[in-house]
Amino acid sequence: MDVELPAELLEFLGQLDAFIDKEIKPLEQENDNIRFFDHRREHSRTDWDNQGLPTHEWEELMYEAKCRADKAGFYRYALPKEYGGRQGSNLDGAVIREHLASKGLGLHHDLQNEHSVVGNHVNAQLLLQYGTPEQQEKLFDSILLGKRTLAVAITEPNHGSDATHMETTAVREGNDWIINGEKTWNSEVHLSDYNMVFARTSGKNGDAEGITAFLVPMNSEGAKIEEYLWTFNMPTSHAHTSFTNVRVSDKDIIGEEGQGLRIAQHFFNENRLRQAANSLGAGVYCINESVKYALERKPFGKPLASNQAIQFPLVELQTQAEMLRAFIQKTAWLMDKYGAFSQSDKVSMCNFAANRFCCDAADRAIQVHGGIGYSRHKQFEHIYRHHRRYRITEGADEIQMRRVAGYMFGFMKQQAPKGM
Prior knowledge:
Largest sheet: 4 strands, mixed
CATH class of the largest domain: Mainly Alpha
Strand order of the largest sheet: 5-8-9-12
Distance between the termini: 18 Å
Strand content: 15-25%
Shape: globular
C-alpha cells in the first residue's frame, strides 16, 4: 500500500471544498438555516409535537443540499459509473468521510442523519447487488435522490445484537409468505414506502442460515409503526414496528431465500468502516478546536496552551488519531484489494477504537473549553451524543471485540482474500 493518497483523490477533495464554499455554506446561512447547526439545532430540527420526528423544514434543507451536490457531480461518488457515480473505493470513502467530518457540524456533512454531500448509498448499493431488475426499477431512483428511502428492519426488541435468534417469522402459504413479528430501531421508516424486513423462514434459533430479507410495502395490511423511540440526540427517526399476518410474495425476496444475513453482514462491514472514518474526522475536529482555543484563552495572564495539563491529553489524542488514520486507510485498501469480507476482524477493530476515540476527544474538548464547551454554543456536546450512539449501533463495542476474539482464537473463520 502506498501511504501517499492518490493524486486524483486529493484533487477531488479540493473540488469538494470549493463546492461546499460556493454552494453549501451560503445555503446554510439563508433564511436563518444556521438555526439547524447553532445552539438551537436540536430544537429547530425536532417536531416535538409529532412524535419527535425531524421537522419538515430540516428534511427539506438536507434534500436541497443533496440535489445541489448531485447536480455538481459529488453525491453519487461511490456508485458505479453507469449510475452516474465514479466507482469510489472503500479507501476513497474513508478519506472523504474523515475529511468532511473534520470540518465540524454543517450542511455539508451531518452525521446525526447520515446526511452528506457525498452520499453513503448503502441501501442503493445493496439493491444493485442483491435486488432483481424489477426491484431495482421500482426503488432505485426514489431511494437514491427522492424524498423517500428504503428502511431496514433487522433488530428486534428481545434480540438486539444477536440476529440469529430472530423471532420474526415468514411462513410460506402457496406462492406467498405470511410475516409476523416486531422490529425496533427501524430507522427512517417515516420516509419509507418499503421496509427491508428480515425474517426467519427455516432453520432454528442460532442458525445463521434460514433468514430471508423481504421488501415489505409499509402500506400493507398488518404493517404498523407502533412508536418512535426518543433518544440521547433528537430528533428521532427510530421506530418500533410490528407485522401481523403481512402477506408478501416470492418476488418480494431480496437476494436468496435463507441467505438474508449475508446481505446484513455486507451492510455492516462497509458501514462500520465508514462509521470509523466519520468518528476519526469528528474527533480530529475536537482536537483542532481545542488547540486553537488553548492558544487564544489566557487565564491568569498566560495561554492555556502553556500548561502541560492541557497539552498532554491532546497529544495523546493526536497520537491516537494518527494511528487510527493509518489503520483505517490500510483496512479500506485491503478491502478494496481482497474483498469486503476479508478484513472483518480489522473492520471491527477500526470501528470500536475510532468510536471510543471520538467520544474521548469530545469529552476532552469540553474540558479544555470549560463552561462554553459544556454549552450548546459549541458542537462538542452534539458530537459526543451522536458518536456515543456509534458505540452501540452497527454492533456495540462488545460485539466488535467479540468478533475480533472469534478470529483471534479460531472460533470464527475469515473469508479468504480473493485470488489466494
